[in-house]
Amino acid sequence: MIHAMRIEPARKISGELRLPGDKSISHRAAILAALASNRTQIANFSTSEDCRATLRSLAQLGVEIERDGTSVAIEGVGLDGLRQPSAPLDCGNSGSTMRMLAGVLAGQDFVSMLTGDESLRSRPMKRIIEPLEMMGARISSESGYAPLRIEGRRPLKAISYEMKIASAQVKSCILLAGLNVRGRTEVIERKGATRDHTERMLRSLGFKVQTKTIERNSVEVEAISVESRAQFSAHSGTIPGDISSAAFFIAAAALLPGSKLKINQVGLNPTRKQILTVLRSLGVDVRLESVKPDGSWERQDFDEPFGDIIVNGSIGLAPAVDGQSNVLRGDLIPQLIDELPVLAVLGTQVLGGFSIRDAKELRVKESDRIRAVVENLRAMGVEVEEHEDGLTIPRRTRLRGAKLDAHGDHRIAMAFAVAALIAEGASEITGAESVAVSFPEFFDLLESVIER
Ligand code: S3P
């Protein structure tokens, strides 16, 4: 086990990589394969601890799973085939595991318990408790925090739920609960607000998923609904590389002049690839390959597009003429949510300064990510103003190597590993082993493309 990780600055990044499967898609593929009535084989399944927690929990619910590296075979038990677990399901550090499984467990005719590590037990769960109770489940919690005791009900009641926060985990929790409803379950969110992997996967499995644009208080919103079925079959397929993991490599290559990096077969779902648009608007040379002549993408397993990303590092990041890209805010934030820590690091190198606003959700992630980023940037000599909903870096600053703290959070560890590469002098990151939560191979792969 790594404890404090020492990182020396790098000259540039070069090479070609293929990354482990997308974490968000892997969770969903595993859960839906477990509820299907056939056996499926998933290739390039995420190697993350988070997805391991999902597989472990499904096994405790009576699902037979065979794993051989990144290849996972799942024997579906059908929508009514899960068994009452004999012990609480430990979701580890994974919010996605807890919130999505809660949706599934709400529609079972047994009682189950969901728990997790200290970080997960301090993350808000009222956001899923409320809609699931409206659907008829009974959930007790520690004042809105896990452990959760879920008394399921079969079938659940159909609801139409208007989302209060932009969260794909909450949306997915409700849609998965909707599989044990008679009729249609509807979730209303701002149009295109959050990642749509659940909707795509359900559609690819033959579910009738409708998205209707409607107007609420003169804002265009989307009503997403799913109609339940008595049973369904899942498909085997390959999970695309994780774009949120790719983001750290893309940022490192963008920040080190002379870098040339190709990342193969990365998921390019439109609700996840906003980071590429932001980088382009800051002048980064980032291109996509593998588009077919008709403009569609090469592979579409689980209805997910994927292609290759090529980044060339050059000197200096500067916003496009409109100057807007100095500030990330508003509707953009939910689509960049996991990339914001590394974007803050990148922001230290943007001419004219950089700001992130409307991102209060960062405070309830695996750590308080606003606090963690601000503290670590300050340790590296950056002047940074902390806001309740984000941060402002007033000017471009040369980073100094420093003692950094991951706050037990995988994305903070990886974002500051990138910061350490562009700093003057070596850095040391405490808690760097947390990368295993999403990306156990991170440091080895990084080392394989660094030139010093
Ligand atoms: C995820 C949704 C996001 C994201 C998380 C994974 C998902 O969380 O931060 O890493 O797979 O649906 P929220 O939906 O809670 O914002």
List keywords for this structure.
single chain, 452 residues, alpha/beta, UDP-n-acetylglucosamine1-carboxyvinyl-transferase, Chain, 2 domains, five-stranded mixed β-sheet, four-stranded mixed β-sheet, 24 strands, 25% strand, binds shikimate-3-phosphate
Describe this structure in words.
- The chain has helices at residues 23-35, 49-60, 95-105, 126-134, 168-177, 197-204, 243-255, 274-281, 332-336, 340-347, 369-379, 410-421, 442-449, and strands at residues 4-7, 12-18, 39-43, 64-68, 71-75, 89-90, 111-115, 138-142, 145-151, 160-162, 184-190, 209-216, 219-227, 237-238, 260-267, 285-289, 306-312, 327-328, 354-356, 385-387, 390-393, 403-405, 427-430, 450-451.
- The strands form six sheets. Strands 16-17-15-2-24 form a five-stranded mixed β-sheet.
- 28% of the residues lie in helices and 25% in strands.
- The chain has two domains: 4-20 and 240-451, Alpha-beta prism (UDP-n-acetylglucosamine1-carboxyvinyl-transferase, Chain); 23-238, UDP-n-acetylglucosamine1-carboxyvinyl-transferase, Chain.
- The structure holds shikimate-3-phosphate.
- The site of shikimate-3-phosphate (S3P) has 12 residues, from helix 3 and helix 5.
